[in-house]
Amino acid sequence: MKQRDKATLRLRVWIEQENEIYIGIGSTLLLQHIEKLGSLRKAAEELGMSYRRAWGKLKNAEERIGRPLVEKTKGKGQRFNLSPFGKELMEKFLQFYVDVEDYATKRASEVLEMDTVKSGEFYRDDTE
């Protein structure tokens, strides 16, 4: 096998329930940005999606999960906070994702005999 400097591991991970996505990195990333910015509109902009698409993604996730993931902040217009459940789910999925990515990066390096690094594209800086 030809050796190059580094290879970047990219993963798309999600959990399904009854053949439907329960939670995935896309929904989790949206929740992360809502938490950081306090705004669905700003989260959508930062992720390069329309407000309508972000709203639909959020509402679909809440429907699938059966619980609210965000709450409107009273008295502040269209400000959002994560619900306690939404915050817990986001944090648990991010930790799960980082664990899977760590293992997969190490295993790819061993099996493929190449320097493999994680892309780090989907999670917060403070989870490293």
Brief rundown of the structure:
With 128 residues, the protein is α+β, with helices and mostly antiparallel strands. It has four helices and six strands. α2 packs across α3.
- Helical content, roughly? 40-55%
Q: Quick one: how many beta strands?
A: 6
Low-confidence stretches: 124-128
- How many alpha or pi helices? 4
Biggest sheet: strands, sense, closure? 2 strands, parallel
The proportion of residues in beta strands is: 15-25%
What's the SSE blueprint?
Elements (H helix, E strand, L loop, with lengths): L6 E3 L4 E4 L2 E5 H13 L2 H8 L3 H15 L4 E3 L7 E3 L1 H29 L3 E3 L10
Parallel strand pairs: 1-6
Antiparallel strand pairs: 2-3, 4-5
Notes on the protein architecture:
- With 128 residues, the protein is an alpha+beta fold.
- Helix content is 51%, strand content 16%.
- The chain contains four helices and six strands, in the order E-E-E-H-H-H-E-E-H-E.
- Strand 4 and strand 5 form a beta hairpin.
- It is elongated.
What characteristics describe this protein?
single chain; 128 residues; alpha+beta; two-stranded parallel sheet; two-stranded antiparallel ribbon; 16% strand; elongated; disordered C terminus
